[in-house]
């Protein structure tokens, strides 16, 4: 299904052509052709041969006939995060050779429907310990200072690290370290946070897994602001997912 949360409209999409059971789908955008596409990957959930994706398919929204098309990928992998679309490219973290512990960053060109791979720099953390962000039109990656496993950020965290991709062909990255202000401990208190992402105004957004509290850290002003959403008490014991840069669109969808 594809759903517009502003209008509560939901439309069915063609079923992915697969005999596999597990499916992971990304929504991507081609800014040149002004087309939305879906990239779906499927893999088996049985057997002992591993969990690499075995089928890669693309569907173009708005086409006269909605059909899934198979595309090739030179390196079998397994996606491990939701990814981010920047200037016609989808970037996401993935495990290569499932179970090996080897991770990389996948770049899917939406227009040409081809895959490339970007190696991480030494010191970069992937899979659960970091998040990919849009840094002024370039791919960036945010992580904590490494004091805690699984990327958890607490009052004891001293700094956040930002890695920015300089050259995808040469796998070159630049590193920026943001020392957190002295007020950090008082504002965060006992909360355990995860990094959500970065806004266009350079605010780094952090959230709690089981609370509606959201924290905005601005490295330029060196400030921390805590925002608590009212009326969310009923969800206190449920997992909360925070998304950035939502724009309402009340137009009815047509597929």
TrEMBL record:
F-box associated beta-propeller type domain: from which residue to which, for each copy?
A: 1-247
| Origin superkingdom | Eukaryota
Q: Identify the NCBIfam families for this entry.
A: F_box_assoc_1
Q: What is this protein called?
A: F-box protein DOR-like
Native source species: Camelina sativa
Provide the gene name from the record. LOC104786399
